[in-house]
Design goal:
Length: 146
């Protein structure tokens, strides 16, 4: 059974009420429920973590090395600022898939650069809640080294 850790970064706990014109009206709880449903159909064991704190996200990535086969991460605003999260992903040998609800390439200039993309296996951006579901599908299809 493939083990997938989903990590949600800062402010994603406010999904549903946060800028619904950009991020949609689906709550994080609803996204996690859909992910769990898709996971159980795909023989995936799924764990989910959300934090508004950079260091906690770094620790979640470090701890994943003992458990996860694949990481799905929406680093949210830290996408555009965090060398620490990028280094944590580089430090472990688990493939990571970067997710964004919005199409970051079609938004403000500062959002178009990602510190995470160069160390991710790929990015899904712009499909709202379905970005996560597509990433989970990619996580299932991803060839693993071990
Ligand atoms: C986001 C895009 C980021 O630029 C932003 O800071 C977020 C959410 C997205 O999912 O579209 O918080 O990662």
């Amino acid at each position: 059974m493939r083990k997938v850790l989903v990590i949600h970064g800062p402010n994603l706990n406010l999904l549903g009420e946060r800028e619904p014109g950009i991020y949609g009206s689906t709550t994080l709880e609803e996204i996690n429920k859909s992910l769990q449903e898709q996971a159980s159909k795909s023989d995936v064991e799924l764990k989910v973590f959300q934090s508004n704190h950079e260091g906690e996200l770094v620790e979640a990535i470090q701890n994943a090395r003992h458990w996860a086969d694949v990481i799905i991460i929406n680093p949210a605003a830290y996408t555009h600022t965090s060398v620490a999260i990028r280094d944590a992903l580089s430090a472990i040998s688990i493939p990571a898939i970067e997710v964004h609800l919005s199409n970051i390439h079609a938004r403000e200039n500062f959002r178009q650069a990602s510190y995470i993309s160069p160390v991710a296996v790929g990015q899904v951006s712009g499909f709202g809640k379905n970005s996560y579901l597509l990433a989970l599908q990619a996580a299932v299809l991803l060839p693993l080294k071990k």
